[in-house]
C-alpha cells in the first residue's frame, strides 16, 4: 500500500514550524522583503508539493543588507556572553522543535527521519558549544620589547557573514556557521539551497521567534532565496567580509575567485572523495558497519560519504562478501518510515548522475558486484529512489577520481604495505575525510603521520562520515581548506587586532631606532 507523507505527520510538522502556503524569502517579522519569482519545493519522498517561497530580487537584497547592517550595530555592542544567552535560547527552541524540524528535513531532503533528527541534534550541539565559547573568545598577550609597554591581541566581530549552504545538510551547516558567527558578534545572511528552501524558512522562523522574544532585530539573521544569481549578490558585495560556502568544488571555485577578487575571506567546504582503507588487521564486522553506513547513509549524498574502499588483497574477498551481504539486507523506501535504511536522492537530476556513474565505471572496465537500479512502483513514484550499488574498479578510473553524489561504492584492491593504500587514498583531487580500519598500531600511526592521509579528517576504526561538531570540520585540496564548527574555527568569523599600549612618559621606537627631536 502506498504510504503518504500525511501518514507521518508532515502537515502537523509544517504547521508547528510556521510554514505557510507561500513563504516570503525572509520570513516573519521585520524582514518581509521577497518579491521575486516563486520556487516550488517538491518532496523527493513522494513527489508532493511541500510549499512555495518567493525569491529575493536585487532590490529585496538591498533591503536585507540594510536590515543586516543596522542589526549589526546593535548586536556587536552586546557582551559576547549575552549573545551566548540568545544562542542558548535558540538551542532550547530547537530542542522543542526537534521532531518537527527533523521530519521536515527528512521530507524535503529525503534522508531518513533518524538522520533528520541527527541533523537537528548537530544544531543543538553547536549551540551548546557556542554558548560556552561566548565566554572564551580569547587572544594572546605577549611581552613587548620596549619597557613600560603592554602588547596583546583581541578579536572583534567582522560584520555581515554570508552563508551559502547545500541541500544535503539543509539546516545543520547553516547552524555551524550562524551559531559561531552570532556569538562572535556578526550577523548572518543565509542563502539555503534552492532545492531545500522550506527548511530555510523553518529555521528562520525559529530564529526570528527568539530575536522577537528578546526585543532584538530580526536582521541578526536574514534569509535570502534563489539560485546562484542570488548567491552572486553576496559574493560580489564588499559589505560582506566573509562568505562561507558549502557545496560542489565547481561552485567553490567560482565563489573563491569572486570573493578573492575583492580581497574578502572565504570559508569553503566542498567536495570529498572519501576512502576507508581496510588492512589485513581490520575488524571485519566494524568495517562493514562503517563502510555501509558511510556509503548509503543519506543515500550517499554527504560530503563525507564513503566512496572508495581500499582493501588489502589478503582480506579482499572476505570484506567484499560481507559488504555485499549487508547491501542485500538494505531496505529502500520512504525515509519517514523507520524500517527503511535508504531514502530517495534529492531529485531526478541526481538520479541521472547516478546512472551516468554506473555506465562510466563499466565503460572504464569496472565490474558491478551489486547492480544499481532506479526503483519504480507506487512507493517510488517520485522517481528519485535508487538501489545502492557497488563496483570493483581501479583507483585511476576517471569516474573513481570524481565525486558522484549518490550511493555508488568503489572497491579497490591494494597489495603490500599500508603505504600503498595511503598512496591510493591520497591520489585524488579532494581531501575531506578518510579512515583506516586496523588493529595494528603501526599501520594506524602511519596513516595519521605527516606522510599519511592528506585529508582534513582522518579516522581510525570509524568510518568517514558522522563527524562530531566539537572538532574543526573541513578538508584540504579541492575540498577548499575551510574549517567549520568546533575547535578554533570561530576565529575566521572575527577580525584580529594587535594592541600595544605605552604607559610611560617616553616614546621609545621598536627595533632600537632613534628618532630624537
Ligand atoms: C556535509 O555532508 O556537508 O560528518 C556535512 C558528517 C556530518 C556532516 C556532513 N556531521 O557526516
TrEMBL record:
Keyword S-adenosyl-L-methionine: no
The keyword Cytoplasm is annotated on this UniProt entry: no
Residue numbers annotated as active site: 269
Record-linked InterPro entries: Ald_DH/histidinol_DH, Ald_DH_C, Ald_DH_CS_GLU, Ald_DH_N, Aldehyde_DH_dom, ALDH7A1-like
GO molecular function, one term: aldehyde dehydrogenase (NAD+) activity
EC code: 1.2.1.3
Domain called Aldehyde dehydrogenase: residue spans: 36-498
Keywords: NAD, Oxidoreductase
Record text on subunit structure and interactions: Homotetramer.
PANTHER family attached to this UniProt entry: ALPHA-AMINOADIPIC SEMIALDEHYDE DEHYDROGENASE (PTHR43521)
UniProt record similarity statement: Belongs to the aldehyde dehydrogenase family.
Protein's name in the database: aldehyde dehydrogenase (NAD(+))
Source organism of the structure: Hyunsoonleella flava
Amino acid at each position: 500500500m502506498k504510504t503518504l507523507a500525511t501518514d507521518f505527520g508532515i502537515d502537523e510538522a509544517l504547521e508547528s514550524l510556521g510554514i505557510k502556503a507561500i513563504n516570503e524569502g525572509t520570513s516573519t517579522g521585520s524582514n518581509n522583503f521577497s518579491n521575486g519569482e516563486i520556487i516550488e519545493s517538491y518532496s523527493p519522498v513522494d513527489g508532493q508539493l511541500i510549499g512555495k517561497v518567493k525569491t529575493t530580487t536585487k532590490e529585496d537584497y538591498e533591503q536585507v543588507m540594510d536590515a543586516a547592517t543596522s542589526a549589526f550595530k546593535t548586536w556587536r555592542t552586546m557582551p559576547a556572553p549575552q549573545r551566548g544567552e540568545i544562542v542558548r535560547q535558540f538551542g532550547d527552541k530547537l530542542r522543542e522543535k526537534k521532531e518537527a524540524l527533523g521530519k521536515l528535513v527528512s521530507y524535503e531532503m529525503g534522508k531518513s527521519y533518524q538522520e533528520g533528527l541527527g541533523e537537528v541534534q548537530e544544531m543543538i550541539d553547536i549551540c551548546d558549544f557556542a554558548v560556552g565559547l561566548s565566554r572564551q573568545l580569547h587572544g594572546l598577550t605577549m611581552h613587548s620589547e620596549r619597557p613600560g609597554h603592554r602588547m596583546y591581541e583581541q578579536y572583534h566581530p567582522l560584520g555581515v557573514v554570508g552563508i551559502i549552504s547545500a541541500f544535503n545538510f539543509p539546516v545543520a551547516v547553516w547552524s555551524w556557521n550562524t551559531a559561531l558567527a552570532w556569538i562572535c558578534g556578526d550577523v548572518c545572511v543565509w542563502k539555503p539551497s534552492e532545492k531545500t528552501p522550506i527548511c530555510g524558512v523553518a529555521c528562520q522562523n525559529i530564529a526570528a521567534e527568539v530575536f522577537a522574544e528578546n526585543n532584538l532585530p530580526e536582521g541578526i539573521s536574514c534569509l535570502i532565496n534563489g539560485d546562484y544569481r542570488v548567491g552572486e549578490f553576496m559574493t560580489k558585495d564588499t559589505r560582506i567580509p566573509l562568505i562561507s560556502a558549502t557545496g560542489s568544488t565547481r561552485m567553490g571555485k567560482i565563489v573563491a575567485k569572486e570573493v578573492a577578487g575583492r580581497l574578502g575571506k572565504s570559508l569553503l567546504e566542498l567536495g570529498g572523495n572519501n576512502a576507508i582503507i581496510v588492512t589485513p588487521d581490520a575488524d571485519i564486522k566494524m568495517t562493514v558497519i562503517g563502510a555501509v553506513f558511510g556509503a548509503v547513509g543519506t543515500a550517499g549524498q554527504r560530503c563525507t560519504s564513503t566512496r572508495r574502499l581500499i582493501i588489502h588483497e589478503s582480506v579482499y574477498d572476505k570484506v567484499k562478501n560481507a559488504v555485499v551481504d549487508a547491501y542485500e539486507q538494505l531496505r529502500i523506501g520512504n525515509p519517514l518510515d523507520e524500517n527503511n535504511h535508504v531514502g530517495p536522492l534529492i531529485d531526478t537530476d541526481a538520479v541521472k548522475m547516478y546512472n551516468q556513474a554506473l555506465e562510466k565505471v563499466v565503460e572504464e572496465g569496472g565490474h558491478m558486484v551489486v547492480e544499481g537500479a532506479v526503483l519504480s512502483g507506487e512507493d517510488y513514484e517520485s522517481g528519485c529512489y535508487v538501489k545502492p550499488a557497488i563496483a570493483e574498479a581501479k583507483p585511476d578510473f576517471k569516474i573513481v577520481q570524481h565525486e558522484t553524489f549518490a550511493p555508488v561504492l568503489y572497491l579497490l584492491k591494494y597489495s603490500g604495505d599500508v603505504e600503498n593504500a595511503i598512496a591510493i587514498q591520497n591520489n585524488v583531487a579532494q581531501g575531506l575525510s578518510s579512515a583506516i580500519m586496523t588493529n595494528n598500531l603501526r599501520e594506524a600511526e602511519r596513516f595519521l603521520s605527516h606522510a599519511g592521509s592528506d585529508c582534513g579528517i582522518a579516522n581510525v576504526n570509524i568510518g568517514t562520515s558522522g563527524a562530531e561538531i566539537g572538532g574543526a570540520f573541513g578538508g584540504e585540496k579541492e575540498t577548499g581548506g575551510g574549517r567549520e564548527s568546533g575547535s578554533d574555527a570561530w576565529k575566521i568569523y572575527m577580525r584580529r587586532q594587535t594592541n600595544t599600549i605605552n604607559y610611560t612618559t617616553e616614546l621609545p621606537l621598536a627595533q632600537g631606532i632613534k628618532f630624537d627631536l
